[in-house]
Amino acid sequence: MATPRILLPLLFLTAGNLLLLLTNAALVDDICRQTKEPPRCVIILMSTDARTPTATLSVLEEVAIEAAMFSAGQCKMGADNQDLYIAALDALLSGPANLQQHNYAKLVEEAGIVESAIGGCAVANDAALVRANQDASVEAQTIAIIARNLR
């Protein structure tokens, strides 16, 4: 019987690194539990960036911002109403600077702009666009949740 792929990296971890990995998994679970779609949030955070397993809360915020920028950009290219995605992307572009400046209230505000803009978009019956739109919405929620925790 083959070893599941998810367990292979665990075989090479020391006890301390395993504890850190489990702690971060709990952190991701705690954050994602507060979104409208916790399973989607966990998948996004755990699969989009190699920094996630050992990330601090600030690094998780970077991961969420970058993932949201990617998802919103994917939607913008295929959506009929590109203006709303442009508004979402504009709000996300200042995210890294606001994170660096510890302007967490602005991050929460921008996440609201992103979620509102994306919520107003109608995507065609294209499964990839629908998925990217849903991802961007969950990522915006995640940005706001993490920013509130960073305050």
Q: What's the topology here?
A:
Elements: H1 8-11, H2 15-32, H3 38-48, H4 57-78, H5 82-93, H6 95-100, H7 104-119, H8 127-150
Helix pairs in contact: 2-3, 3-8, 4-5, 4-8, 5-7, 7-8
Shape descriptor reads globular
The number of distinct helices, counting runs of at least 4 residues, comes to 8
Q: Report, as a whole number of angstroms, the end-to-end distance.
A: 47 Å
- Summed over residues and divided by their number, the pLDDT gives a mean of 81
Largest sheet: none
Low-confidence stretches: 1-22
**Total number of beta strands:** 0
**Over all CA atoms, what is the radius of gyration?**
16 Å
Query: What proportion of the residues form beta strands (DSSP E)?
Result: under 5%
What pattern of helices and strands is seen along the backbone? Answer: HHHHHHHH
Helix content estimate:
over 70%
Strand pairing plus helix content: what structural class? mainly alpha
Short description, anyone?
This protein is mostly helical and 151 residues long. It contains eight helices and no strands.
Give a written overview of the molecule.
With 151 residues, the chain is mainly α. It is built from 8 helices and no strands. Helix 2 (15-32) crosses helix 3 (38-48), helix 4 (57-78) runs antiparallel to helix 5 and helix 7 (104-119) runs antiparallel to helix 8. Residues 1-22 have low confidence and may be disordered.
